[in-house]
Prior knowledge:
By secondary structure, this protein is mainly alpha-helical. It has helices at residues 24-33, 39-48, 52-70, 80-90, 95-102, 106-120, 125-135. Helices cover 59% and strands 0% of the residues.
Amino acid sequence: MSRVGQPGPAVVRRGRAGGMMHGGLEFGTWLLETGDGGWLEAIAALAATGDTEGARRQLTRAHRAFAAERDVPGIAALTPRETEVVTLLADGLTNREIAARLFVAPGTVSIHVGRAYAKLGVSRRAAAAARLAEAGLVRAGAR
């Protein structure tokens, strides 16, 4: 297992216990092969300095770029926070659990969810999760 700042493949996967889940090796491979974006280096550098919030924001930007390349409707239009919220939603968290995780009010989460639904063209949590799976940002059926 490699440490931050050391070479080696890094596939981020956090389930119920902790946050974003990515579409397995497909996203990890893209992250490693996209030298022009410098995603992995930027994320590792931020994490190495202890800026976990900055690293998380950079990872969200990388997700959006990955999804945009896959041309999934609505994904590229999501803000970084909307992407984070619907990814946690796809992990099976309730609005209240998402709010606690992100240190915001449940009403704020509801607003992000509603805006993300509109951009994704969906009206249910399962449909939003399916759209993220289609984009390769989460594994279908994973919790």
